[in-house]
Specification:
With about 200 residues, the chain is α/β, with parallel strands linked by helices. The chain has one domain: 3-Layer(aba) Sandwich (Rossmann fold). The chain is built from 9 helices and 5 strands, in the order βαβααααβαβααβα. The chain has a 5-stranded parallel sheet, sandwiched between helices. The two termini are about 15 Å apart. The chain binds cytidine-5'-diphosphate (2 copies). The site of one cytidine-5'-diphosphate has 15 residues, from α2, α4 and α8. It comes from Frigidibacter albus. InterPro entries: Cytidylate_kin, Cytidylate_kinase_dom, P-loop_NTPase. This is Cytidylate kinase.
Length: about 200
């Protein structure tokens, strides 16, 4: 059984949370494609050649520093390089069409990686809500950086991801738009699960 759930959207919209829950519910494999770009960005920040850096090892993907805002910015910069996107394409495509079902979350899954995906979700929320969630993840009042800095980072990264020439972030024409600004995680997951059920019959 080949079945792909493509989840795209801006930073901290809830893509990964929803993707993991949907994958678990249906027994599908899950790929956080942002982690690939974060790992490449981290290697390039250390001086690696961008294309050579795309040969990723399990160790590259297991680095502890990939979730930081700096790694997000480094990812977003290398993600605008067409040769990097091309080098990461095949792995993602094969993952999407693997036997047994797959959920991928990122920026271009429904538009470029797997336009034939059976279900496409564009998960979004206001920049303020998204930055607030990321700030809470960092500890809220105890976070090492103020909310305003997190908001600025999110806005800058979204603008770069939406403005690049190659595979810009945008909803696929046939994507279901899921605005999670006023939804709990459970409500957002329930809507995503319903979309998959509707398509699977
Ligand atoms: O993968 P992405 O960057 O889009 O977002 P995430 O890491 O799944 O979610 C970012 C944060 O928002 C996490 O702390 C989630 O628990 C939270 N979240 C939420 O509060 N409400 C939702 N409906 C979805 C996510
Ligand atoms: O978790 P969050 O939404 O903050 O970011 P991420 O999904 O880990 O992605 C980090 C960066 O990688 C994004 O800002 C994009 O520039 C890039 N990316 C991409 O270009 N295409 C993808 N399919 C996934 C991520």
């Amino acid at each position: 059984m080949i079945f792909t759930v493509a989840i795209d959207g801006p930073a901290a919209a809830g893509k990964g949370t929803i993707g993991r829950a949907v994958a678990e519910r249906f027994g599908f494999a899950h790929l956080d494609t942002g982690l690939l770009y974060r790992a490449v960005g981290a290697k390039v920040a250390e001086g690696a050649d961008p294309v050579a850096a795309c040969a990723l090892t399990p160790g590259d993907l297991a680095r502890g520093d990939l979730r930081s805002a700096e790694a997000g910015q480094a990812a977003s910069r290398v993600a605008a390089v067409p040769e990097v996107r091309a080098a990461l394409l095949d792995f993602q495509r094969r993952f999407a069409r693997r036997e047994g079902g797959a959920v991928l979350d990122g920026r271009d899954i429904g538009t470029v990686i797997c336009p034939e995906a059976e279900v496409k979700l564009y998960v979004t929320a206001s920049a303020e809500v998204r930055a607030g969630r990321r700030w809470q993840e960092l500890g809220g009042e105890a976070a090492p950086l103020p909310y305003a800095t997190v908001l600025a980072e999110v806005v800058e990264r979204d603008a770069r991801d939406m403005g690049r020439a190659d595979a810009p972030l945008r909803p696929a024409v046939d994507a279901l738009i899921l605005d999670t600004s006023a939804l709990s995680i459970d409500e957002a997951v329930a809507r995503a699960v319903a979309a998959v059920r509707a398509r699977r019959g």
